[in-house]
Amino acid sequence: MTSDSPYTDLERPPLRELAINKAVVRPGGLWRRIDIVPETGSTNADLVEAARGGAAEGLVLVAEAQSAGRGRLGRAWTAPPRSGLFLSVLLRPGDVAPARWGWLPLLAGTAVRTAVDAVTGVPVRLKWPNDLIVVDDEVPDDTMGEGRETGSYGAARKLGGILVERVETPDGAAAVVGVGLNVSLRVDELPAAHATSLVLEHAEAADRDTVLRAVLRELGRWYTDWTAVSGDPLASGLASAYAASCATLGRRVRVEVPGGAAVEGEAVGLDGDGRLVVRTPDGERAFGAGDVVHLR
């Protein structure tokens, strides 16, 4: 066995592409093929190019490692090989009005949260728009305990994140949804003090094959229901499901907009396009993008 074999770390076995395809791909279903590669620069970048080349909806690309993974707002995403799930999916919601595409990041966050909670027992919540976090409800925001920092997450740790990119292609607009989820990272491997993993949160199950299947099933279910009603967040149940699991709503926040001044206020809800509504001393404002800081 060579030193670069994926089986040298028996605690982090490779994903089983054939078994996952058999479990997830169904005639008439959303997912048509799941490709798993040992390494790539960015699964999102790869599927953006595939979309521009005419790839159909339902293509899934999973990488055991990424050398140029990206998060929201241009941030880098790094993790040891096979320590998490790093995947992107190609969607073409052509029957959904462009204004409602703002719900796609929230849909993906809801789907991943539902899947992780169901198969691992870890009580995941969402930080607007689509960070997956684990909140210590018993710990007040002004103290995280020894070795923890508050930062933008308050009394919470980041488990994963989602990046959605809209792509203009000859066959119409497409969306590439990227998901990064920390599964087996150890404390000394965490990329930041506020990060965590399923193993560190004492997950009941931390098998990547199992979690990946659950994520794709939930993402397919939510997306199918959402597109069936032309992206209506109320009729699809998405708005209520997201609000119920969003740790941002109902608390004081600071919204930092690239190139603009930071705004502080209370996050009071979402508008019809999925934007965060913040009540400020000058009235309510809706934000479609920005970095949200949970204030004490």
From TrEMBL:
<dbReference type="GO" id="GO:0016874">
    <property type="term" value="F:ligase activity"/>
</dbReference>
<dbReference type="InterPro" id="IPR008988">
    <property type="entry name" value="Transcriptional_repressor_C"/>
</dbReference>
<keyword id="KW-0092">Biotin</keyword>
<feature type="domain" description="BPL/LPL catalytic">
    <location>
        <begin position="19"/>
        <end position="227"/>
    </location>
</feature>
<protein>
    <recommendedName>
        <fullName>biotin--[biotin carboxyl-carrier protein] ligase</fullName>
        <ecNumber>6.3.4.15</ecNumber>
    </recommendedName>
</protein>
<keyword id="KW-0436">Ligase</keyword>
<dbReference type="InterPro" id="IPR045864">
    <property type="entry name" value="aa-tRNA-synth_II/BPL/LPL"/>
</dbReference>
<keyword id="KW-0547">Nucleotide-binding</keyword>
<dbReference type="InterPro" id="IPR004408">
    <property type="entry name" value="Biotin_CoA_COase_ligase"/>
</dbReference>
<dbReference type="Pfam" id="PF02237">
    <property type="entry name" value="BPL_C"/>
</dbReference>
<dbReference type="InterPro" id="IPR003142">
    <property type="entry name" value="BPL_C"/>
</dbReference>
<dbReference type="InterPro" id="IPR004143">
    <property type="entry name" value="BPL_LPL_catalytic"/>
</dbReference>
<keyword id="KW-0067">ATP-binding</keyword>
<dbReference type="Pfam" id="PF03099">
    <property type="entry name" value="BPL_LplA_LipB"/>
</dbReference>
